[in-house]
Amino acid sequence: MADINYTDMNMPYSLEAEQSVLGAVLVDAPNNMPKVSSELHAEHFYVKLHSDIFSVMSEMFAAGDIIDIITVLESCLSEKIFDSSEEGKGYLVKLMESVPSLSSIDSYIEILKEKNVRRRLIGAARDILNLTGDGQGSSERLLELAEKEIYDIRSEGRSGGLTKIKGIVVDVLNEISEMASNPDKQADRGMKSGFPSLDKYIYGLGNSNWIVIAGRPGMGKTAFAMNMVANAAKTRPDKAICVFNLEMPKEQLVTRMISSEGMIPNDAIQKGRFSREQWRNLADAAQVLSGMNIYIDDTAAITVNEIKAKLRRIDNLGMVVIDHLQLLSSGRRDLNRVNEVAEMTRNLKIMAKELNVPVITLSQFSRSAEKNKESKKPMLSDLRDSGTIEQDADVVLFLYRDNYYDDSKENKRACECIIAKNRHGSPGTIKLLWDGEYTRFTDVEYIHADPRA
After folding, report:
1. What are the residues facing 256 on neighbouring strands?
2. 3 state DSSP class of 340
3. DSSP 442
């Protein structure tokens, strides 16, 4: 067993709290390990010996093994955490005897989390000092790195770096076990689009996914994205949803949302002429939207880094929508447009991963998309600046309506959502109904579930 040199430890930590948490698990694992495993990770324990013991306990918990002093001792010996059985048994007994009160385990956990935050803040401060002191990099890049360091701590993100696969497997097994025992937890894995047929294909919007919605002008891209926003805001009111619309003022965007939510013709809103029932619907829609946890930013020519900086100030972020990609700015004048878009798509994917939320970005087609094509249905190659978009996106959705090209079509509301790329599943097509009057889409397969459809 490695010696514990307490005098060398000048970082914030609590020896007593670390020992008490481990001891509480050894005394009563069935009641304490589920709670400890969901709240703490190995890095919350500053003493390496304690971190190693907790890693062993986590692996055993994930495998469904019995956790007690005998089984933990055997696992620790096989991992060579202790030099001998006598030494290991003696220290594990000491841990069990060090627990002042099993009922106070929540307080011990909070102490470990607090000390870990302080240690990470010290590490971040050192990193920032080193970065600013060596004179390398632009001030904008330094600010970006500094914000990321602090954001990761604030959001309780785990530190990056190389991680042995065994630890990752434990985390995955813990999540799968929790999902299997509580199917309701599936809702916590990410936001839902509100279109069940689509969610079945892409398994929800998915944390860290960069999703692209593309279509011809007037096909309903903005409406489709804002329908998703409203649907997600209703099902997950605890999550903040941020919309960056570079194309229209926020008042115009909210007007569309009121039309969709209240089933009020957009033409009536523009003219300000309503029936008595429409006035009631207008008031009800305004009240519903006012209660939603949605933020809207209509800053023109904003950069991805500026968006990221704003998002880091939002508590409990759940989803981001950007309308649209071609109006974003890279903030760099030394790149041609192709390279500029390549940098932005890469940064958007990185942003989705760093913030661990779905980032939905609307995109246009190239002007040549419909030339020399018998079918007007879009393909991945039709994406404007398509190479890097197709490469970096996790999901690419195309909106397509026959009626857009041929007004004689019998079903003028028919619309297809073509899943052209699906990194986590198969491509496909779902059927939607488009109500241009209300800027609203409805899932055909589940239309019976919506009395207003």
Report:
1. none
2. helix
3. E
DSSP label at residue 323? E
Beta-strand ranges (E) seen in 196-239 are: 210-214
State yes or no: is 140 an active-site residue.
no
Parallel, antiparallel or unpaired: strands 294-297 and 317-323? unpaired
Please give the backbone phi and psi of residue 417, each rounded to the nearest 5 degrees, phi first.
Answer: -105, 105
Q: What would the pLDDT profile of 287-321 be if each residue is shown by its tens digit?
A: 999 999 999 999 888 888 888 888 888 889 999 99
Question: Cα Rg for the chain, rounded, in angstroms?
Answer: 27
Ramachandran quadrant class, 230 (left: phi over 0; alpha: psi -120 to 50; beta: rest): alpha
Q: Is 375 exposed, middle or buried (0-12, 13-18, 19+ CB in 10 A)?
A: exposed
Q: Which range scores top for mean pLDDT: 124-128, 209-213, 422-426?
A: 209-213
Q: What dihedral do alpha carbons 406, 409, 413, 418 form, nearest 10°? A: -60
Q: Domains (ranges, CATH) in the chain?
A: 1-187 (1.10.860.10), 190-449 (3.40.50.300)
At 433, give phi and psi (nearest 5°). Answer: -115, 135
Would you state the structure tokens that stand for residue 120, as one six-digit string? 């990470």
How far is 409 from 413, CA to CA, in rounded Å?
9
Query: What is the rounded average pLDDT of the residues 44-62?
Result: 92
List 247, 343, 416, 437, catalytic entry: 247
Residue 337 confidence (pLDDT) above 90: no
Residue 145 token pair: 């790195």
- In terms of pLDDT, which residue wins out, 411 or 418? 418
